[in-house]
Amino acid sequence: MVQIIGNIIAASNTAPVWKETQSKVWITFSKVKGLNISAKGKLDARGADWWKTCSNTLAFHGCSSFRVHGLTSVNSARNHISISGCSHGTLSSITFTAPDESPNTDGFNIIATSNNIEILDSNIGTGDDCIAINNDSSYINVTGVRCGPGHGISVGSLGKNGEEARVEEIHVKNCSFIGTDNGARIKTWQTSAVWISDVTFRGIRGTIRKEKAINLHCSEKVACTNILVEDINLNSLVSNKKAYSSGTNAYGRTSRSTPLVECLLK
Where is the active site (predicted)? Predict the structure, then answer.
């Protein structure tokens, strides 16, 4: 078990030991099985000092059967938590805070090749996606997350430069968006071969700062299939404007959704 009791604060970018660093991660756990992190303190990455180096605060690579509970991360220079090549992880009661204008400060970024990951009962306020789910990820469950500020919860972007990608069994439920730029999204590059299936957005409430609340933007080459959007109520904060949805080549079902997800009614 790893316990974080006090506050861990990154060095200033003027500190000699850090000044020339090219590290892309501040703290990394690699290829650990059965890791258990319990935190009552917080990580402060001094984000504004390190935005140019784009260092992630905490990364899990190749870990399995791991748990993280109670962590607070503030002022990330890039992603608060990055996950790659991991399986069977539970991350709960997590708090992320970064300035609204901070660049690329995703809360959770599931970078690639991860499965059976649960994100539960967490508060995420960032300058980018609260949660981003990327290539070769499957069986990702997100429940009870409060997102805002930030860009919402996104599957993708996927398929840049024509690369193939596959994502399936992504389930987001009982979450709230508070003044986010966007809401629920699937993002792909249109000319790419991206397979996305079995994605659920259910029980989502809140407000967005723009107007597009739901965006299911699937590849022109390969349709998204078995998409479920259900029990949604998202409203725009733009004066006298209603929130709306947009979709391309997405197929599935929708019910009790505000805004109406017309692309799934074809």
Answer: 151
